[in-house]
Amino acid sequence: MENLRLNVALLRRRVPNLTSAAKSVGLRPATVSNLCTGKIPLGRSEVKTLVALADLAECTLDELIIRGEKVEMIETKIKALDLFAPVAKGGTIGLVARPGMGQLVILLELFHRLKSEGYKAVFLMPEGNYPELDDVKDFADVIATSIDQAYEELAQLGKSNDVLFAADRSNVVSGEIYDLQYRLQAIGVDSITTFLLDLTGQAVDEDLPYGPLETLLQFDADLTARHLFPAINPIQSTSSVLEGAFLDQNHLLLQQRAQKLLRRYRELRSLVQVSGMDRLPASEVQTYKRGERLEAYLTQPFYTAEAFTGQKGESVSIQETLEDVRKIIDGAADSRELDELQYIGKLN
Asked: Which residues cross the membrane (predicted)?
C-alpha cells in the first residue's frame, strides 16, 4: 500500500460539506480528516471507510485512490512547519486557530519567505471589517476583493508562476473556494497552493472546518500563552507529504521521534505544573528536560516581526533542522541552558 493516497482534490470538488456527509454514512469526520492529511496511512484504513468515501464522491475506488504520485514539499525554512506539517505544493493548507494565536503572522511570513523563491502571493479579502488585515497589503502581490477577481488574477499568474493564494473560511463555507479551484483545474492551472485561515476562530470547534486538506496547521493555546511562537501544535498538525514513500525516511523517523518525545513531555509537564519537579520520577527527568529543550528550539524569530521583537529573522534548512532535532533528542544539547535555545535559528 505504499505510494497510495486519497484524491483530496476530487473529494473537495465532489463532497463540499464533507463533515455532514461523513456523519450521514457513519464515518467519523476526524478519521476522514486524518486520511486526507496522511496522519492515518491509507494502508491502515478500513476498506469499508474507503468504499463509503467513494460512494459519497460518486466515484470508483481507482478514482479515489491516487497511486505513485509524489506530494512535493515547499521548504519554508520554518523549523516547526517543515518538521511536523510540511506545506504540500499545489495543495490546500488549513490553519486552525483562535484569534491571537499567530495564524495571520505565519501566513504573512510565508508570503515574505517564498517571494524570494519566485512565488507570487494573492490574498482574497473577506467581507467585513478586519483591521488586522491592513498589513496584508505589504506582503501580497495582489489583493482581490471578489472571487471573480481572484480567479482572473490566479488564472493569469498561474500560467507562468508558482502562486500562494490565501482566503478566509467564510469563502469556504459559501462554497466559492471549491468552485474557484475547480475552475482553475479546468483550464490546466495547477500551480496554486491555497492557504485557508479563519479570522473568527470558529474553525477550532469544527471537525472538518475546511473540508479535505493536504496540510493541517493546528495552533496551540498553551504555546501561545507561554509566548512560544510559532505556536504550531506538534502533535495535531500534519501533512500528506509525511505519507510513507513521499518523504525522506530520515525526516519521517525524526518527525516521529520528536512527536513521541513532545507527547510524553506534555504529559509530564502537566504533572510538574501540579506537583513540581520533585514529584517527577527520576527515570523521566531526562525525557522532560529534552522535551523542554526541543520545544524551546522549535521557536523561531520571523523576518516580518523584526520591528516588533528586535530580533533578526532566521531561516533554517530542513536538513539543519533534522540534524539539530536529532542532537537534542539524543542528548547532545543536555548541557545547554533553556534560554540559549529559545528564538534561535540553528544550533551552533
From this structure: none
Residues 6+ apart with CB under 8 A from 270: none
For residue 267, give the amino acid letter: E
**Is CATH 1.10.1140.10 the right assignment for the domain spanning 249-340?**
yes
Residue of 228 and 19 predicted with greater confidence: 228
Higher pLDDT, 249 or 238: 238
Average pLDDT along the chain: 93
May I ask the CATH class of domain 92-213? alpha beta
- Tell me the residue type at 42: L
By three-state DSSP, how is residue 76 classified? coil
Backbone angles phi, psi at 218, to 5 degrees: -95, 125
Distance between CA 230 and CA 299 in Å, rounded? 6
Please state the domain extents for the chain: 4-67, 92-213, 249-340
CB atoms near residue 46 (< 10 Å)? 10
Digit-coded pLDDT (tens) for 279-294: 899 999 999 999 999 9
Q: Which helix (H) or strand (E) holds 144?
A: strand 142-144
What is the rounded CA–CA span in Å between residue 192 and residue 174? Answer: 20
**Is 101 within 8 Å of 224 (Cβ atoms)?**
yes
Q: Report the distance separating Cα 294 and Cα 213, nearest Å.
A: 27
The CATH code that applies to domain 4-67 is 1.10.260
What is the DSSP-derived secondary structure letter of residue 232? B
C-alpha cell at 134: 491592513
CA 2, CA 165: separation in Å to the nearest integer? 30
Cα distances (angstroms) measured from residue 268 to each of 164, 217, 271, 277: 39, 24, 5, 9
